[in-house]
Design brief:
Blueprint (H helix, E strand, L loop, with lengths): L12 H16 L10 E6 L5 H12 L3 E5 L13 H11 L2 E6 L4 H8 L4 E6 L5 H15 L6 E5 L6 H10 L5 E5 L8 H9 L4 E4 L11 E4 L10 H7 L18 E3 L20 H19 L5
Helix pairs in contact: 1-5, 1-9, 2-9, 3-4, 5-6, 5-9
The protein binds phosphoric acid mono(formamide)ester.
Phosphoric acid mono(formamide)ester binds next to helix 2.
Length: 302
């Protein structure tokens, strides 16, 4: 089976650092057509702006051609074709598959039936490992290191696949975690147990401002309406946090605000012009990081 990126655990610490090194080289020189003649398939069963377009930009800059779909309703899935058959077909056509799907575990399953590498571009509330690698790249660029940082994760920590992947990746770098969430959206026990098994500390709060001045990376997340089975529960928590510029007065000068985006109400637009805001640059970093991931999985080094 070819090497895929389904969970952040599929990459060792050394591999993650290698990807960050490659990303820096691609950022310095983004036009390297080392994948001329290759075909990359982007198949998205769920909406996306950043992940799909940055992967497509990355593949284009590497000289690959792109096939795929952004709406499965226009494919034979709408006639009842299974995920297994769909993946077997696409792996006949492409050298690499990038897939987003609403079902947890779907990406792992796809990698098991595919003849070519699969990149998980998000599977339900489970994992989003390419987002995590671009988050690591953004953290390294803004802090100059990955080790011994205070990482404050805010918002939907229950269903947020980006925070689950990031927590596992950062566990290599002795972080102090803060989990800021209402009771309904707290970090699940399995992830807290994972941290305890690694000897990593965390603290929990419901108050956004409680640990703001003691934070290096403030990782904001959206409360994701699409993950709630009960609309009343969503209504209760949808506006639970709203970061505004006046809250940033006592923050560390190195503190940077990350957000996988899209945002809704959790970051006020008056934060955008703050020196602490980094979420748009973070999304830009996605192109270089995804160039590195695609090249690495296809066995190309720079
Ligand atoms: N960060 C992220 O996954 O954004 P999209 O849903 O727009 O791809």
């Amino acid at each position: 089976m070819p090497k895929s990126l389904i969970s952040i655990h599929d990459f060792s610490k050394d591999e993650m650092l290698h990807i960050l090194d490659m990303a820096a080289k691609f950022e310095a020189n983004p036009f390297q057509t080392i994948l001329k003649g290759k075909v990359v398939a982007c198949i998205f069963f769920e909406p996306s702006t950043r992940t799909r377009l940055s992967f497509e930009t990355a593949a284009n800059r590497l000289g690959a051609r792109i096939i795929g779909f952004s709406d499965a309703d226009n494919t034979s899935v709408s006639k009842g074709e299974t995920l297994k058959d769909t993946i077997k077909m696409v792996s006949n056509y492409a050298d690499l598959i990038i897939m987003r799907h609403p079902l947890e575990g779907s990406a792992r399953y796809a990698s098991e039936v595919s003849g070519v590498p699969v990149i998980n571009a998000g599977d339900g509330a489970n994992q989003h490992p390419s987002q995590t690698l671009l988050d690591l790249y953004s953290i390294f660029k803004t802090q100059g290191r990955l080790s011994d940082l205070s990482i404050n994760m805010v918002g939907d920590l229950k269903y947020g696949r980006t925070v689950h992947s990031l927590l596992q990746a950062m566990s290599h770098f002795s972080p102090l975690f803060t989990f800021t969430a209402p009771d309904e959206l707290m970090m699940p026990q399995e992830y807290k147990k994972y941290l305890l098994s690694k000897g990593i500390s965390y603290r929990e709060t419901k108050e956004l401002t409680e640990y703001l001045n003691d934070t290096d990376i403030l990782y904001m997340t959206r409360v994701q309406q699409e993950r709630f089975l009960d609309p009343i529960e969503y209504e209760r928590v949808k506006n639970v946090y709203s970061l505004n510029a006046s809250m940033l007065d006592g923050c560390r000068s190195n503190m940077r605000i990350l957000h996988p985006l899209p945002r809704v109400n959790e970051i006020s637009t008056d934060v955008d012009s703050s020196e602490h805001a980094y979420y748009f640059e973070q999304a830009r970093n996605g192109v270089f990081t995804r160039m590195a991931i695609i090249a690495y999985l296809l066995g190309k080094e720079i």
